[in-house]
Write a structure and sequence with these properties.
With 354 residues, the chain is an alpha+beta fold. The protein has 2 domains: 4-169, D-amino Acid Aminotransferase, Chain A, domain 1; 175-339, D-amino Acid Aminotransferase, Chain A, domain 2, CATH 3.20.10. The chain has 8 helices and 18 strands. It has helices at 63-67, 90-103, 111-124, 197-201, 204-212, 259-270, 282-291, 328-340; strands at 8-9, 34-41, 44-52, 70-72, 75-79, 85-88, 136-145, 158-167, 175-179, 217-221, 229-232, 235-241, 244-248, 275-278, 294-301, 305-314, 317-320, 351-353. The strands form 2 sheets. Strands 1, 2, 3, 4, 5, 6, 7, 8 and 18 form a 9-stranded mixed sheet that branches. The longest helix is centred in the N-terminal third of the chain and has 14 residues, at 90-103. It is globular, with a radius of gyration of 21 Å. The two termini are 22 Å apart. The chain binds 2-OXO-4-methylpentanoic acid. 2-OXO-4-methylpentanoic acid is lined by residues 74, 200, 234, 301-304.
């Protein structure tokens, strides 16, 4: 068993941080001084090491380049009151990472490596955690298959890495969304619920085409009728209809079990807003819009936290939402950030201090 103390640490001689304005950085462009690396060989994890952030050297035959056994997580650390740094719900990401690993026929990672690895790495690069509005340290754990062979089979070796990126907001303005009726993100029995790289690669063409039409992202629908709603871009989706919150249920395995989604459900219940996790058809959304009961649409995810939707297009129908009149999504965003920055009580025990 790997203990926290077994993580070898080699520090940089000089930090790169001095050149960076931490509270004015885009999402995921700059990386901190250190990274974590571990190897899976002969059925066990070994060589757990924190070292200076650096390129990796691989054979062109590396399995992940060809057959895509690649999974990841997205987690954020915040600098809060009294300058203390805390990570939002890392144990939930740890559990989801191993669910993704199982689905992609990859080895599970022990909690000591995932959690202690993140905590030690964030502690070491603590001065990189921004304190500005909508800024945080984005934590990216990931695993790739590393056998240098072209046979199509699960790799016998893997690498687990964690890198850190001080990041600003993912979306700086409300999103315009088009309902997708041609391409499919996920089907029952597929890999939609896992956070594997291919889900993101497979989504890009639809997003690019939506951008060409003036939209920021698509609202994914089911693969058979293109009517049942799944996710919005790379996020979970919520609708506020007649005072109730409705979000697609996870039962078909087509939707990522978002940790922000789960947190939003807890906060909504605390606000006495009824929450329904169930199948939602686009026709129900159109009818609610026609009746004037469709109040808000928003996305939830680690990178964006809460992303407001200003426009939702389905065929020739455009549903517009006056951002200044939204109540629930902005309130959720505010409550979440106050908990994350230690400015309000962490009632749910979400924050893990480093
Ligand atoms: C998230 O918001 O958690 C995401 O997965 C987005 C990320 C791929 C940038």
């Amino acid at each position: 068993m790997i203990e926290a103390a077994d993580i070898q640490i080699t520090k940089v001689e000089t930090s790169k941080l001095k050149d960076l304005e931490l509270n004015n950085v885009p999402f995921g462009k700059y990386f901190t001084d250190h990274m974590l690396e571990a190897d899976f060989e002969n059925g066990e994890w070994k060589n757990v090491e924190i070292k200076p952030y650096q390129p990796l050297l691989f054979q062109p035959s590396l399995a992940v380049f060809h057959y895509g056994q690649a999974i990841f997580e997205g987690i954020k650390a915040y600098r809060g009151k009294n300058n203390k740094v805390a990570i939002f719900r890392p144990f939930d990401n740890y559990r989801r990472f191993n669910l993704s690993a199982l689905r992609m026929n990859m080895p599970e990672i022990p909690e000591e490596i995932f959690i202690q690895g993140i905590k030690q790495l964030v502690k070491l690069d603590e001065k990189w955690v921004p304190d500005g509005k909508d800024h945080a340290l984005y934590i990216r754990p990931f695993m790739i298959s590393t056998d240098p062979v072209l046979g199509v089979k699960p790799s016998s070796t893997y690498k687990f890495l964690i890198i850190l990126s001080p990041s600003g907001p993912y979306y700086s303005r409300p999103m315009k969304i088009a309902v997708e009726e041609k391409y499919t993100r996920a089907a029952p029995g597929g890999v939609g619920y896992s956070k594997n790289a291919g889900n993101y690669g497979g989504s890009m063409l639809a997003a690019t085409k939506a951008k060409e039409e003036g939209y920021d992202q698509v609202l994914w629908t089911d693969p058979f009728e293109h009517k049942w709603l799944q996710e919005v871009g790379m996020m979970n989706v919520f609708f506020i209809i007649d005072g109730k919150a409705i979000t697609p249920s996870l039962d078909q395995g087509t939707i990522l079990a978002g940790i922000t989604r789960d947190s939003v459900i807890d906060l909504l219940q605390e606000m006495n807003i009824p929450v329904e996790e169930r199948h939602i058809n686009i026709d129900e959304i159109i009818q609610a819009h026609d009746k004037g009961t469709l109040q808000e649409v928003f996305g939830t995810g680690t990178a964006a936290t809460i992303a407001l939707v200003s426009d939702l297009k389905y065929r020739d129908i455009n549903m517009h939402f006056d951002i200044n009149n939204l109540k629930i999504a902005p309130s959720l965003k505010k409550q979440l950030i106050e908990i994350k920055e230690g400015r309000s009580e962490d009632k749910f025990g979400w924050m893990e201090y480093v």
